[in-house]
Amino acid sequence: xxxxxxATDWLAxxxxxxxxxxxxxxxxxxxxxxNAQAEYLAGHIPGAVFFDIDGVADTTTNLxxxxxxxxxxxxxxxxxxxxxxxxxxxxxELGLFSAPRVWWTFRTMGARNVRILAGGGPKWRAERRATxxxxxxxxxxxxxxxxxxxxIATFETVRDRSRDGAAQIADARPAPRFHAExxxxxxxxxxxxxxxxxxxxxxxxxxxGQMKSPAELTQLFASRGLAxxxxxxxxxxxGITASTLALALNLAGxxxxxxxxGSWAEWGSRKDADIET
Length: 277
What we know:
By secondary structure, this protein is α/β, with parallel strands linked by helices. It is 29% helix and 14% strand.
């Protein structure tokens, strides 16, 4: 596969290309006491628009930042000045945390050329590259969706695969949450994990804010009991780091990977969901 990453040098050289759009896809955990949009307004890569993961979402559910319907997504990102034919470069201000979720969202909705800035905002700033403040607005565009439902796993699918083993389930949450040793950061959720799922903490996938090499990832997944040739469903707390895990699996050569969009925010809140600790 084409590398989903671009380097800061490449982005700096192409920053003013008319068919390129830069997206700040920063998002922080509920207990992080950080406001991604306020930080964006205080300083961002020149020309970048802010992608609100909680706002470009399905508003008919109480689950956090679930994918919106394709026509709603097209309307919202079109208003941001993004078309499906543009080169879309996503970054976040933690290096590599929420940008893969935005990458996965655009890919699921049919964008053809979506890349992630390697090292993200921290690397850009460490190299003392230009930033700007305030809200960036772009002329509205038409985004034509080509929705790929195979990239998404529903509660029912995950429940069935947990029981029949027809797909592996990989959980990107920290191990203490997987084992119910610490409370979930979202109130009201039970602790534990989906039965028969495997723990693959997202922190094992990166080093210094960047994704490990495909060879390192392949070795890691083998050590965790994941067979890359078999279907895999990724999960996490709310679908953010599950997308990072899906990206890493793709880089390692896995081809049949879906993200459980509801993740533990859904599973841990349902009385009809079996839980292991």
